[in-house]
Design goal:
Layout: H1 4-18, E1 23-28, H2 41-47, E2 52-58, E3 61-66, E4 70-75, E5 81-85, E6 95-101, E7 105-110, E8 117-121, H3 123-128, H4 145-152, H5 159-164, H6 174-184, H7 197-216, E9 259-263, E10 266-270
The protein binds zinc ion.
Zinc ion binds next to loops.
Amino acid sequence: MPELPEVETVRRSLAPALEGARIVSVAVRHPRLARRNESPADVGDRLLGRLIHRMGRIGKFLLADIEGDLTWVMHLGMSGRIELAHPDELEKPHTHVVITTDREQEMRMVDPRTFGFVAVYTPEELADSTIADLGPDALDHLPRSPVWVRRLAGRRVAIKTLLLDQRFVAGLGNIYADEVLHRAGIRPDRPAGSLTTEEIKRLRAFVHPILQAGLRWGGTSLSDLTYLLPDGRAGEYLHRLRAYGREGLPCYRDGTPIERTVIGGRSSFWCPQCQQ
Ligand SMILES: [Zn+2]
């Protein structure tokens, strides 16, 4: 599932292509992808003919400011990806949304499992949507550690589960949360409220470096290659992961085999030696 570095990588490749372009046609071929609007037809009706101002992002959501005070929202779900293509290029299977601009370019959303979505919201609809519930973006607005200390106090939920809670901080998912916990030397199943101030500072301090490293390598494409960059290349951070997906392989720090435990319904990879 694409997380913050993957979505930010997509945003950075889409921005120069889409910002300042006008939308000349919209095709939603699978109505499920437009399910977040009251009527699936809203997506096409609202985007057609409009100018795209700015391509932004909060957490794992892409948000484009559109002429007419509208916000175009995209989420890649479990298996979605976005391609930029010339209208003459053949479409990949599972291309469910195609948005063409006056630059003879198509933005195509490919999503075999259809958990992703495209929506176009008025300011009121945006304020009522799940986006309004998102916490601060983990890359752009990561809260300082005193805020973390206050918000973790007394919490019995596992720290891993809290890191995945998009209302706490937006953008971390299973891969990067495991990496951050491993670097910080904290067990993923520790109750959030049991972390010392020192541990909280350490944990917070690793969020940016890990996300930045993910970005530098174009994100993480797992072996299923569901996530690819808009130009079709794979993100290469997979080979840099130290915890996620490494069950049974030696910890880089101390050689102890990495363990896999299910926490809050999600696989967590961690080292029983250096994560306490
Ligand atoms: Zn270790």
